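> call design_seq(struct)
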């Protein structure tokens, strides 16, 4: 099961799905990035994905491997926009000229499944 209701994401552990996130009111440059992060209830970062923003939007794709080892329960997610990002030697974004967080953290619920494949 994969469902998006407003800003709430629900998915069954190990399922796949995608959401497109559109951004209004800001002109992004070619080097600017969106950073999508999911955190567990204890604040531990679970997943982080970096996306290029094209025509004011980007698509977050959930693959089986993203959630198949996580415990069912409540998580939070957010998106941060990094304007002119700075990278470390491993290619990870560590800062930027500006970092924008447009919303408070939102809910993500990971549901248990009965069977497996």
């Amino acid at each position: 099961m994969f469902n998006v209701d407003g800003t709430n994401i629900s998915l069954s552990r190990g399922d796949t799905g995608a959401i497109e996130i559109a951004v209004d009111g800001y002109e992004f440059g070619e080097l600017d990035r969106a950073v999508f992060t999911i955190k567990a209830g204890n604040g531990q970062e679970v997943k982080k994905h970096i996306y290029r923003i094209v025509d004011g939007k980007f698509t977050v794709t959930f693959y089986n491997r993203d959630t198949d080892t996580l415990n069912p329960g409540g998580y939070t997610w957010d998106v941060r926009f990094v304007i002119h990002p700075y990278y470390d030697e491993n290619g990870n974004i560590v800062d930027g000229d500006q970092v924008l967080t447009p919303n408070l953290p939102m809910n993500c619920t990971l549901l248990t499944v009965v069977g497996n494949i």
